[in-house]
Design goal:
Layout lengths: L2 H14 L8 E2 H4 L5 H4 L2 H16 L3 E4 L6 E4 L4 H10 L2
Antiparallel strand pairs: 1-3, 2-3
Helix pairs in contact: 1-4
Length: about 90
């Protein structure tokens, strides 16, 4: 699975969970549906981390200060760009 596919999956999952702005969730909650072949090895975990970091850098995601694990939510100011990214990468 490519990084772009993981980015698409994470955005779709957060959109369906309605985690926008102040409503946030732990990263482990949005990665639950990824294949275990990705989440169970070092290389896969590294790709997932890079995908999340890129989404934060593109300002698609907000990263909340961690309690134990980092929490994320969709940036409400970029919902149109997020939906466009989802549509273009189906």
């Amino acid at each position: 699975m490519k990084k772009e596919d993981i980015m698409w999956y994470l955005l779709v999952k957060l959109t369906s969970m309605k985690k926008i702005g102040g409503s946030h969730t732990e990263i482990k909650n949005i990665t639950k549906g990824l294949p275990s072949s990705i989440t169970s090895n070092k290389k896969g975990k590294k790709i997932v981390k890079k995908a999340i970091k890129e989404l934060v850098n593109k300002r698609f995601l907000f990263a909340k200060p961690p309690t134990q694990e980092i929490h994320v939510s969709l940036n409400p100011k970029n919902i149109k760009k997020i939906r466009k990214f989802i549509e273009e990468n189906k």
